[in-house]
Amino acid sequence: MKKTIQLVFPHQLFEESELLHNKNEIILIEEHLFFKQYKFHKQKVAFHRATMKGYAAYLTAQKKKRLLY
């Protein structure tokens, strides 16, 4: 059985996306490159984290997909 998943990074948090209209599982990834590759400003790291948590809540509220975070 073939299983397809969708990987979503911090710069791919779109409210309207073709990926949201299929039945694939979504995995939100807090990738090292977006959080610790360089010495990022603490507000930028906090912003990425907050937007990912907000997007996870948005997807959970829709209850259309299985979400891993």
TrEMBL record:
InterPro entries named among the record's database cross-references: PhrB-like, Rossmann-like_a/b/a_fold
Name of one Pfam family that matches: DPRP
Name of the protein this chain belongs to: Cryptochrome/photolyase family protein
Organism in which the protein naturally occurs: Brumimicrobium salinarum
